[in-house]
């Protein structure tokens, strides 16, 4: 585990950062995650236009401030906004400016390592920048750019994901980085959060578990497909976006494709230029990780977090008992 955890990530109800999810993480979900004492996050591109991102940040901050003042003593988690560092994301500069204006405490950058100017701008108001990577090479590039921490996206994660075993990836990164490490990939219950820490990570990064929540912006069909899925009902393909990711096979079948025989796409089709048409594709093809296998219900976020806490504590005490 890291010797240094930035202040904004200390004192959470649970060592959990909610993962930002395109088309799914809207303000209702983010607010519920923060009110449960974990980090709540969303991709900037979920806001249809840059002005909407500005509105969302006002709205979320105001709501959380009201909640804090009427619930003194309750832990409220910080907000994280995800920025896609890709040349096709024409909004990047403006969206980063909006986050700086709102002094968003945590920025999650993904796909390409952020440029040094962005890292410096985030640091200038005391913000923390975490970058998500699928291998050591990308991790080293991001660290060179000056990011504060790494999100390791291991095999089985929902949406764009890597293929490496979490054991290997965490071990390899820990050999050269002792700062904050967040692990993702099929973490959907409390014992898996503890396992991530036992492996050497500081936090679990959880996406799919929160799709199956009342507050998530996902259709009932999407949510129930997660409940019905086992680990092998997830397909890993680059056909839909040009980058490999995990999707529910059921949604692929629903559009008349064979999930076990998908064509291979060209990486160059990846584009974040036209967020809306991409959103349409993600509405039909449902991103989800293999952690769907252990998800059986669609409760409120607060119930999910309460349960995660109990599971985490139970797993910890079982291991402590065994090691005596
Ligand atoms: C539907 C969906 C949409 C996603 N969209 C994004 C995104 O816009 N930006 C991003 O950095 N990661 C995105 N991800 C990846 C998640 O942030 C995270 O890495 C992943 O959900 C963690 O694995 P888990 O789902 O197994 O918990 C998405 C994942 C899903 C399932």
TrEMBL record:
CDD domains: NPD_like (cd04730). InterPro entries: Aldolase_TIM, NMO. It holds the Pfam family NMO. GO terms for molecular function: nitronate monooxygenase activity. Keywords: Flavoprotein, FMN, Monooxygenase, Oxidoreductase. It comes from the Bacteria. PANTHER family: BLR1330 PROTEIN, NITRONATE MONOOXYGENASE-RELATED. Belongs to the nitronate monooxygenase family. NMO class I subfamily. This is Nitronate monooxygenase. It comes from Halomonas ventosae.
């Amino acid at each position: 585990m890291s010797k240094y955890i930035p202040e904004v990530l200390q004192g959470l109800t649970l060592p959990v950062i909610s993962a930002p999810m395109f088309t799914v993480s809207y303000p209702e979900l983010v607010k519920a995650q923060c009110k449960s004492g974990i980090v709540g996050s969303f991709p900037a591109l979920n806001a249809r236009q840059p002005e909407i991102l500005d509105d969302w940040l006002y709205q979320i901050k105001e709501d959380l401030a009201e909640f804090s003042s009427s619930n003194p003593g309750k832990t409220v988690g910080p907000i994280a906004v995800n920025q896609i560092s890709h040349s096709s994301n024409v909004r990047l500069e403006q969206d980063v400016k909006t986050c700086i204006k709102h002094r968003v405490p945590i920025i999650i950058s993904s796909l390409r390592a952020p440029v040094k100017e962005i890292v410096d701008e985030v640091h200038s108001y005391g913000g923390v920048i975490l970058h998500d990577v699928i291998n050591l090479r990308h991790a080293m590039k991001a660290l060179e750019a000056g990011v504060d921490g790494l999100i390791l996206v291991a095999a089985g994660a929902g949406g764009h994901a890597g293929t490496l075993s979490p054991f290997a990836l965490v071990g390899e990164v820990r050999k050269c980085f002792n700062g904050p490490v967040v692990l993702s990939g099929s973490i959907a219950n409390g014992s898996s959060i503890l396992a991530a820490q036992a492996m050497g990570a500081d936090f679990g990064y959880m996406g799919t578990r929160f799709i199956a929540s009342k507050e998530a912006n996902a259709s009932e069909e999407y949510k129930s497909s997660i409940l019905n899925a086992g680990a092998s009902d997830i397909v890993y393909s680059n056909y839909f976006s040009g980058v490999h990711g995990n999707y529910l096979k059921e949604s692929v079948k629903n559009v008349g494709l064979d999930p076990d025989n998908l064509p291979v796409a060209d990486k160059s089709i990846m584009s974040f230029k036209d967020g809306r048409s991409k959103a349409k594709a993600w509405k039909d093809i449902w991103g989800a990780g293999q952690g769907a296998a252990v998800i059986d219900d669609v409760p409120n976020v607060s119930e999910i977090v309460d349960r995660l806490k109990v599971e985490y504590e139970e797993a910890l005490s079982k291991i402590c008992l065994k090691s005596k």
